[in-house]
Design brief:
Distance between the termini: 50 Å
Oligomer: single chain
Shape: globular
Radius of gyration: 21 Å
Helix content: 40-55%
Number of strands: 8
Order of helices and strands: EHEHEHEEHEHEHHEHHHHH
CATH superfamily of the largest domain: Spore Coat Polysaccharide Biosynthesis Protein SpsA, Chain A
Length: about 325
Amino acid sequence: MAKVSVVMPAYNVASYIGAAVASVQAQTHRDWELLIVDDGSTDDTGVMAEACAEADPRIRVFHRENGGIAAARNTALAHSSGAFIAILDSDDLWQPQFLAEQLAVFDAHPDVDLVTGNGWYLGGRLHARTVRPFPDTRPQPTLTTILSDETAVFIMSVFRRQVYETIGGFDETLRTNEDYDYWLRAAIAGFGFWRNDRPLGHYRRREDSMSAVEVRMLTGILRVFRKLREALLDRPAELAILDRQCARFERELLAAQARFALSTGEQQAAADHLSALYASGGGPVVGVASFMARRAPRLLSRAYQLRRAYLRTS
C-alpha cells in the first residue's frame, strides 16, 4: 500500500500526459501510486498511459467511457489505497519536491486534513506567472473564506483519505467547478485546511474561447452554490455570504453572456443580457453599452472586437 495515491484523469491529452507522469516519477517522495483514468479518449492517451504503466509497476491505468472529470477522478478514488490522496490533472506538472513538501505540512499540523498548493501558469498569456499570490497573505482556508473567495483552494491539493471516506467522491453531475464543490463539502463537514503558498507545480492554461469558458464556469459556480445552500440553512453567517456571492456571480454571468454574444455576432442576445445587467445595478458604462446594443449594435460589436484584439496583443 502506497502512502500517497495520485489521481490523474485523462481525456485526449496525448501531447501532455507523458510529461505529467514523468513529473510524478521525479518526486523526491517515492512512496506513491499513480492511478490514471482514460476517460474515453479518442487519441493515443490510453496507449501512452499503458506504456507508462508497463514501465513502472506503481502506475495503474483504468479505461472508461467518457463521463467527465468528476467521474474519472471517482474511478481512480475507488481504486486508491493511499493514506493521502493527491490531485494532478494530466496536462499539469509537479516540481520534484511537491509531495514531500505537502506531506511535511501534514506532519507539522496533525489537525490539518487538506493541504492546498500553488504553481505557475504554463502556456497562454499568463505563462510563468504564479496562479495564486506568493507570498499569500490571505487567511488559511475555512468554510467562510472558501465561500467568500473561490480561489482560496487550488486544484493541486493533497488530502487525507478520511476526507474521501467521509464526504465521498466528486459530484458527477457537475461538468465544471466540481473541485470547488468538493472543497466546500469538505469544509462543511468540518475538515481543516492549510495553504502552502510556495509554487511547486505548473498549471496548464489553454487558449480556448475565453468568453465561452467564462460562461461555463460562472454557470457552474452558481450551480454549486445553489446545490449547497440547504446545507447552510443552520449557519446564517455563511448563508449570507453564499447569497451575496450568488448575486455577484449572477451579475458576472450576465456580463460574460453579453461578451460571448458580442463575440459571436448575436446582437439581440447581447442587447438582452446588457439590459438585464444594467437593471441589476450595472454602472454607466453598462448603461451606454446597453443603449448602443439597441441603437447601434454593429458599432458596439466592432468596438468590442477591437478591444479584444488589443487585449490579445497587450
